[in-house]
Design goal:
The chain is of the alpha+beta class and 158 residues long. Helices cover 43% and strands 25% of the residues.
């Protein structure tokens, strides 16, 4: 039975890593007027960020951006499932019904919470706080690593 927990963990992480050919990053943009935008980080051009939000495209100018928070999508759920699965397996192995109930009622939410905490630690987060418009010239190459489309700025032909 001790082999099942590492096997489940390996299975969840393997399937998660092969599920996406290219990782997607979610972004949270805080503007200077305190508006907050969340979405998938699609592209960065010379003067704006492009986000995908459900079936809408948001273009946010660099002059309006105050803070950026970037994190990798798809890492938290496998950790949560492994945490809940551990206590579910412990409940299945317990002999007394009261122990089974204790593992299910108390252990599964605890496993989900701890899995969420550990998943957030491994989510590969980046923070940019207190940005000014001129800062984007220096951080633009770093931001392009997290976008879905590389080199959103077209090359000029003379």
């Amino acid at each position: 039975m001790k082999i099942i927990i590492p096997l489940l963990a390996f299975l969840f992480f393997t399937l998660n890593s092969y599920a996406q050919s290219k990782p997607k990053y979610s972004i949270k943009v805080v503007c200077k007027d305190r508006h907050v935008f969340r979405g998938v980080f699609y592209a960065v051009s010379t003067n704006q960020l492009v986000l995908l939000k459900h079936n809408d495209t948001l273009k946010i100018n660099f002059a309006n951006v105050k803070d950026l928070y970037i994190s990798k999508k798809g890492l938290v759920l496998p950790f949560m499932l492994v945490g809940a699965g551990i206590f579910f397996i412990l409940a299945a192995e317990a002999d007394l019904p009261l122990d089974q109930l204790g593992y299910l009622v108390g252990g599964v939410p605890l496993g989900v919470g701890v899995g969420s905490l550990v998943g957030q630690l491994f989510a590969n987060k980046r923070f940019y706080k207190g940005l000014v418009e001129t800062d984007f010239l220096t951080i633009r190459p770093d931001l392009e690593r997290y976008t879905q489309v590389k080199n959103a700025m077209p090359n000029k032909v003379n």
